[in-house]
## 1
Amino acid sequence: MSGIRMHNGQALPSWPMRVLKGVVLLVVCALVVLPFLGIVSTSLAPRSQVQAEGGFVLIPEQITFEAYRAVLAGGVVAQALRISVVVTVLGTALSLTTSTLLAYGLSRPNLIGQRFLVLFVLFSLLFTPGLIPLYLVVKQVGLLSSIWALILPSMISSFNVIVLRAFFMNLPAELTDAARIDGASEWQIFSRIVLPLSKAVTAVVGLFYAVSYWNAFFNALLYINDPSKWPLQMVLRMYVVNDGQLGQSDLAATETLPAQPSVQMAILILAMVPILLVYPFLQRHFTKGVLTGAVKG
C-alpha cells in the first residue's frame, strides 16, 4: 500500500496520530511543570504580588529571596532542616553499613543456619510489628524525643537486604576463592573485592534509604514530642499541609515577614531540592542496580 510509510519493516502512524500524541505529551508535561513552576515563583515573588494574586504566583514581577532568608535565618525551620540533614546522613550511613554486612553474611554458602536466617529476614518483611508494640519498644529503650527514634526503628529494610544478598550471590565465586587462596580474610574479601564490584546496587540502596529518611515524618509524629527536635517533614506537615501560621519567633526574622504562601512554598522547595540534586547523579545506576540484584534470591 503506497499511502503507508514504513520504517524498519513497520508501519509508521499517520500524521494526525503523531500530532495527537504530541499534544497529549505537551499537556502532560504542562500538568507536571506548571505546579512546580508556581511553587518556585510563589516562593520568589514579592509580598504585594502574592497577596494581590491570592497566594499563588505563576510569573513573579521581581525575584526576591526574602522568604528563604526568613526561613533560613533561624527558628523552627532552620533547626528542622539541620535535624533532617543529620538524620538522613547518619541514618543512611548506618543503614547501608548494616544492610551490606547482613546481606553479605547471608550470601555466604558456608554460613551456619543460613536458610533459617534468610527465612527470618523474609518473615520480618511479610509480617511487620504493630504500631503499639513498636511504640512500646521505643519507649522502653528510652528513645522517645530523641533523634535515634527517627533512625533505629527503621534502620534495616528487609527488602534492601534481599536485593543486596541477591547481587552478592551473583558475583563470580572464582574471585572470592582466589582471594581466599591468597590468604585474604573474609573482611578483606568483602571490603576490597565485593564492595568495589557493588557500587551500582549500593548506590541505589543508599538512595532508597536517604529518600526514606528525608521524607519520613510518621516516626517523628509518633516519637518526638518536642517541636525543637522536629525534622523538616514535620514542619512541612504542620505549616504547609495543615496550613499553620509561622510567626516572627518561628522564623527568627527581624524585618516584616514575607507572605505566608511564600514562606510555605520556600519550605516546600527546601524539602524537595536535596533529593532533586542527588537523584540525577544516581539515576544511571537504577536499572543496573535493582535488576541485577533481583535476578535470583
## 2
Amino acid sequence: MGTTALTLAGLPYDIVSILALSARMAVGIALFSWQLPRREGFARRVAAISCLWLAGAAAFVAAGLTVPDPGPVGSAFLQLTLFSMVLLACTASVYALFEASVWVALFCSTAGYTVQNLASGTGELVFALLPLVGVDPRDPMVALATWLLTAVAVFVPCHLLVGRKISSEGLAQVEDRSMLAMMAVVSLVVIGFDLTVKLLLEQGLELGFVVVLRVFHALACVFTLSMEYALLYRRHLEQDMAAAEHLLAERERQYRMSRENIEAINIKCHDIKHQIRTLAGNGPSVDASVLSDIEREVSVYDSAAQTGNEALDTILTEKGLVCEQREISLTCTADGSALGRMAPADLYALFGNALDNAIEAAGALDDPSRRSITLSVRAVVGVAIVHVENYVAVAPRFTAGGLPETTKGDRANHGFGTRSMRAIAERYGGTLTAGCEGGVFRLDVMIPLVV
C-alpha cells in the first residue's frame, strides 16, 4: 500500500497496512457469516475482539522493530506461520461472535480469507501494471483507490455468486471434518502462493512472470473457493437423499398410525356393542353408570374438530383420537379460516409434525397432569399465529438455526420435521420459532394472511 516505514522478515508492513488487511478479512468473512445467528452480547463481543486485533497489530509492529531479517527462506516460513495463525484467530473470532459450530466457523474463515487473498492479489497485480500507463502506485490516493476498486471488483461477485446462495440453515449443517483439509489448502496454496509471488517480486522478477503468477494465484483462489462450495453442496445433496429416505419412512409410519387409529376405533366400537348387549340383557332395568360410560365413549367420536378449515379439521380429529388413546389432554382453539391460503398438504404436514412431536413428548411423562398439549390458531393484525406448547421431560438442545435437535440416535433419518415445518412457513412468507423454558416447549408459527 504505497510507502511503508517498517519491515518484518524482508517484507514491508506498517500499522495502516495491517489494519487494512484486517478490514478486508473482516469483510470477506462477513460475506459468509452474516446470516448466522448472533451470540448474546454481540456488540460487546465485537468491541472486545476488535481490541484484541488492535493489540495484536501493535505487537506485530513492535516485533518488527527488533526481529532481524532471516533471509528469503526464513521469511517465507515465518510469514506462512504468521498468516496461518491469523487464519486460526479468524476462526476463533467467528466462533465467538456467532451461534455456530467450530466447523461452520472454519468454513467462514477459510472462505473469507480466500476471498480477501484474491482481492489482495488482484490489487498487487494492478499495482504492478500501473507504471505501464504512467501512474505512480506509491501515490497514497492512487493506492487507496486501487485497493477500494479491486476489493469491490472481487467482493461483490463473490457475494452474488457464492455468499448469497448460502443460507444460515445450510451453514448450520456443516459438520464435515474435511474442512480441516481446506484450512491446509488455504494455508499452503492460497497464502503460500501469494507469499511466494511477493518474495519473487522483491527479488526483481520480470513483470511478465509476475502477471502470469498473479493470474495463477487468482485461479488458485477461485479453485479453493469452488472446492469449499462443493463441500457444502455435497452436504446438501446428502441431506436431500436422507430427506427422500425419511419421506418414505414417514409414509410407512403414517400408514402404521392409521392402522393403530382404526384398531383403536374397532376396540371402542366392540366395547360399545358389548355394553349395548348388556343393556339388552338387563331388560327394562338400565344402569345409569353404563349409559354414562357409553355416552363418554361415543362422545370421543362425536367431537370432530370444526375450525372452518377441512384439512385442519381432519388432522386435529385424527390427532385427537391418538391423544385420547394415549391419555393425553389436547386443548385446541383454532380459527381455521386464518390459514385459508395454505394448501391442504402443507397444513397436514405442518400440524402433523408439530402435534406428533408434542404427542411423543407428552406421552413420555409419568405425571398425568403434565400429559397435555395446547394448540391455538388465531388471526392478529394481518398475521395467522399458530402456537403449540407442551410439557417435556428434558429440555431439548437447539441448533445454530434455533430449531430443536432430534433426540433420536440416528440423525440421518430423523430431525427433518422441524426443518420441513420452517420451510413450509417460509414458503408462505412466514417464520417459525421454538423455545423451551420451565419444562414447557413452545412452537410458534407466523404466516401473513395475504401475500
## 3
Amino acid sequence: MSVLLRLLDRFRSQRQGAVLPVFALMVIFMVVIFGAAVDVTRTVNAREKLSYALDAGALAVASELSTSVLTDAQILQVLTDSFRGNLDGASFMEKAIDNLDFTIDSDNGIVTVTSSATLNNYFIDIGGYMQKSLGPETFSFGAKSQVTYSRFNVELALVVDVTGSMSSSDMRTLRAASTSAVNILLPEDTPEKDAKVRISLVPYSQGVNLGDYASKVKGGDFYSVSGNCVTERQDYKNYEVMLTDATYDYYLDANPPPIQTFFGGGSSNCSSTSKMVPLTRDRDTLLPAIAALTDKGGTAGQTGIAWGWYSLSPNFANVWPEASIPAAYSDSETLKFAILMTDGDNNRYYRYVETEEKCGWSYSRGSWRWRCQDVEVNDWKEQSESENYDNTSSTRSRALCEGMKDAGIEVFGVYFGTSNSSAGAKNMQSCASEGNYYQASSSDELVQAFANIARKIQAIYLSK
C-alpha cells in the first residue's frame, strides 16, 4: 500500500512538471499580447500628438502668410518653433522636426505640412529575442495637415474723431484702441517689406489736417493757398463730385481750373498734431502719428469719411506717394476696409462763397443810413448747424458712406457714447456694412471694439 502511494505521488509530481513549461509559455505569450497593445496605444497617442502639432504649425504658417511674405527658411523656422512648443517633452520630437516637410500652393492659398517619427517597442522586444521573432524594433507613424491661407492684400482706412468733445482721457483711450488695431493687423515682428496690410490714419474734427498734401488738393499748383486744414468740395457747374471719389483735378474745361473746383479750407480748427497718414505698412510711421493725436474743434464728420475714402481710392493715386497708392477697385487680390469712429454729432459743413451781402450803418449826406451791399468773398466759409440726423453734414456723411460701400469697401462704424439713439450713433449704424456696427459705452469697450474689428478683418481675409 505504501509503495502504491509513493508511485501515485511520483506520477502527480510528473504531471505538474509537464504543465509548468506550458504555463510559462502562456505567460510569455500573454505578456507579448498585452505589451504589443501597450506599444500600439503609445504609437496611436504619439501620432495624435504629432497630428495636433502639425495642425498648429500649419495654422501658424497660414497666419504668417496671410499678413506677410515668407521665405522657405522662415516657414521652416515657424514650423520648428511651433513643433518645439507643442511637442515639448515628447521622445520623438527631434525626429519629427528632422522629418518636417511642407509645400505652398500659392495659386490656391494652401499650406501642406507632413512629418513622421518612430517609437521604440518596449514590450515586444524582450531581451532582443522576441523582436527578431515576432515583430519590429520600432513602430513608425506619420501625419499630414493642410490649411488654407489668405492670398489677399488688405487696405484699411482708420478714420477717428479728434474733436474737442474727446477729453484727454478719451484721447488716451482712442490712442490705445488705434494702437491695438495696428498691432493686430501689422504685428511687431513683421518686416515692413513683407507686410500684406496697409493702414491709413485719418483724424478729423472741423476738417482733416492733410499736412504736406493739403496744398495740392486745395489748388496750390495754380493759386495761392494756405493752411493744412482741408474740409470738403462742392459740385461745380455740371460736375457732381462732392459725394464721390472723383479725382481732385477732375475739371479739364479750363486751364487753370477754377479755384471752386478744388477742395476747400474755411477752418483753422484742425488739430495741428493730428495729421493724416496715407496708406502705409510702416509701424514706425503709424504708431507715432497715433501717439500724437490730440483733440480740437467741432465735428465735420463728412470730411473725415471723405478723406478715409480717398485714402483707399485709386482715383487719388496722384495725391499720395508711390508706396501709398491704393490698389485698383478691380484688383481681385486686394480687400478694402474702413473703420469710422465718432463720439458725437455732426455740426459743421462748408461752402464756397463768391459774394455775400454785408449790411451796416453808414453816414452819408448828413445822416446815418442802414445799407446793404454785395461784396466779393471768393473763399470757403464754415457753416455751423444744429446737431441732428437730418442736418447737412450728417446727410453728406451717410451719402459718402454709401459711395464707399458701392465701391466695394467694407465699412465698420463705431459710436463712442452711451446713447445708441443719438444722431452720431445712428449715422454710424447707417454707415456700417451689415453686422459691422459697434457701440462702446466705456473706455474698455472702445479698446475692445477696435481689437474685435481688427480680428474680424483678419477672419474675413483669412476665410477668403
